[in-house]
Specification:
This protein is mainly alpha-helical. The chain folds into two domains: 49 residues, no CATH class; 52 residues, no CATH class. The protein is 64% helix and 0% strand.
């Protein structure tokens, strides 16, 4: 299961990278802060299915899986992906790497006024 997750995560990261960079999404949607958005998107793609059980949320809820009980039947797998990986990254050297290497190189994203109607 772990190697299958790694293949899937790698495929998602690569596909997202191609869509954002080659498809022009970064230039179109985030022209003022492309580097930061690329970093955030790549990190999200890499952790999006952390410790996935291979079944859907409905199955977890119907079988009273501990994750469904923990998250009160509210998107148990998605909550677990986010919370579990968040705890991991929070205590990880990778977090420091992103924070101290990439953050100073990337200007803050300027706020744009909302489009006029």
């Amino acid at each position: 299961m772990l190697s299958m997750y790694r293949i899937h995560a790698t495929d998602v990261v690569r596909s997202l990278f191609c869509m954002l960079t080659q498809g022009g999404v970064l230039r179109t949607v985030w022209p003022d802060c492309m580097e930061m958005m690329l970093i955030v998107a790549m990190l999200a793609a890499a952790i999006h299915d952390f410790e996935h059980k291979g079944v859907n949320n409905d199955f977890l809820i119907k079988t009273s899986d501990p994750l469904a009980l923990l998250y009160n039947d509210n998107s148990p797998m998605e909550n677990h992906h986010l919370v579990g990986q968040g705890q991991r990254v929070k205590s990880s050297v990778i977090w420091l790497f992103f924070l101290f290497v990439f953050a100073p190189l990337t200007p803050a994203c300027p706020r744009r006024p909302p489009p006029s109607r």
